[in-house]
Amino acid sequence: MAVDDTSHGEFHEAVDLADLREEGRALTAVDGTPIAVFHHEGEVRAVNNRCPHMGFPLTEGSVDEGVLTCHWHHARFELSCGDTFDPWADDVDTYPTEIREGTVYVSPEPRRTEPPERHWRGRLDDGLEQNLRLVLAKSAVALLDSGVSPAEVVERGVTFGVRNRAEGWSTGLTILTALANRLPDLDEQDRKRALYQGLTEVAGDCDGEAPKFDQEAFAATDVPFERLLSWFRENVEVRDADGAERVLRTAVAAGYGREALTELLVTAATDHRYLDTGHTFDYVNKATEALDLVGWDDEERTAEVLASLVRGLATADRAEETSSWRQPDDLAAMCEDTFARLDDLVAAGEGETWTEPDDFTERLHAADPETVFDALEGAIRDGATVEQLASAVSFAAAERVALFATSNEFDDWNTVHHTFTFANAVHRAAERTDATALYRGVFDAAANVYLDRFLNTPPAPAATGDPDADPDAALESLRAAFEQQGKVQQAGDAVADFLAAGGDPDRLKAELGNALLVEDTNFHTFQAYEAACRQFDARDDPDDRRDCLVAAARYMAAHYPTRRSREQTFSIAARLLRGERIDAAENASPETSAGD
């Protein structure tokens, strides 16, 4: 019908009342907003014509007993107020109406008005609580568009995750934190994708899980730190998660800060070898990184986040109980022998300054464990800090991924991956505390670099790069590698060519980040990207930096492409918030699909 846009006060003329009674519904527009006007049970009602779920025109729905039903996904709304029966759909805006001389007028102001950031904070909570992927996508996009900081979104996700999973910190919170760490590398739209992906993983982790019920701190908070450390280790040792949590909460309540609390956790996490193939230590590191992002200043939040780690520490599998750590080389015994002398080794290096030798990575890649252990022990005697050694071992682990032979079984990608991300976590923890216990984590990582040697036998061809390459063409080759299965070498070569030709590393990290975020990426691939970028940033040598990103690209290419179902959801959310028609998109031309 033709719309008379003549204003009458704050109301706009919409439809003839007699016509509305006869037809039952009409579509009008006020200030560019499509509004559906209904005559039902003797009353005139007006709602936004776009279904808040996926934008289907509500004038094509049905009304019965005061309930408006969208025919696309059957979202239902209480017609007079717009409240939804289905939380996945969101409430629909309703508008005041007036009848003047047989004509219906509609106000352009919704009955309920609230700042968009307040609305979308609430919807974010709904999406987390009910594991609603589309709601989380809309919330991530709308909150950032409303000026809400990514840190606040991350904080809400972390808080939800640690409170609503009795088993504690797991993959979802790790992914959210890893992506939050890399937000500066991404463009504006990919920052929204990153938050959406992380929040979706947190919601999925908590879906159907029991909430976490907290233990309380001891009333006595004047216990010396060394005693708390001893108590915590003993409770973890005997797998008493409740007792360990009370000790940890007591340490927080006593006012011990970031460095001391990190020492408490990493010491217990390295009392046994390579817990849960490195995941346990990585979780410890990611929880502390989450607090770096959202702040350590809130005692309750700090206690909640760190307490989520305790059950995992207490129940983790211990690598010294596996045959690979005992036969044919008793790596666990070699570690224990070194650890018994660790204080003396550190004391010998006091006042010394260690510089990493040119052949250090080669020695860490040696075919016998004695060479590896001798290299590390000698470095400590020469003054190597735990941070220096952790950095060196992280690069040695990254090289295993960069040179992984695709003739190996596919699952062995995760073997070299676990070593790398574990080593990266030890390195990150060493930037937070210089606790001597962290040297044990370095040896754990180095032992696994040794165990992974067969996966580089023979090594894949090294990607060294062509300085005469065209950086733009190299990026096109990288994108093409992700579009086809098995193009691992092509991906690594493209990264090397781009960097050798002088391409901007920031652009490369952003391209890799976009490739990561448009796929149905799994847990390990998120980790691989984040750890590789972290190690790239931490190193000075151009060849070393190149190999870190080559490792990430090769790992990603081995796992891509995927169905990209999550990207479809994100795309729908972004288009809905721009006011586009989704229901007509499949059949519309590019020129006509952008409007309602």
Q: What's the short story on this structure?
A:
This protein has 596 residues and is an alpha+beta fold. It is 53% helix and 8% strand.
Descriptive keywords:
alpha+beta; four-stranded antiparallel sheet; disordered N terminus; 596 residues
Provide an overview of this structure.
The protein has helices at residues 17-23, 116-130, 133-145, 150-163, 171-181, 188-206, 225-237, 241-253, 258-269, 279-294, 299-307, 310-315, 331-340, 342-348, 360-364, 369-381, 386-402, 412-430, 438-451, 471-482, 488-500, 505-517, 523-538, 542-559, 565-577, and strands at 7-8, 11-16, 25-30, 33-40, 43-48, 62-64, 67-69, 76-78, 94-95, 97-100, 103-106. By secondary structure, the protein is α+β, with helices and mostly antiparallel strands. It has a 4-stranded antiparallel sheet. The longest helix has 19 residues, at 188-206. The model is unreliable at 1-9 and 585-596 (pLDDT under 50).
- List the uncertain runs: 1-9, 585-596
Taken from the alpha-carbon principal axes, the silhouette is elongated
Class from helix and strand fractions: alpha+beta
Strand content of the residues, in percent? 5-15%
Mean pLDDT: 94
Largest sheet: 4 strands, antiparallel
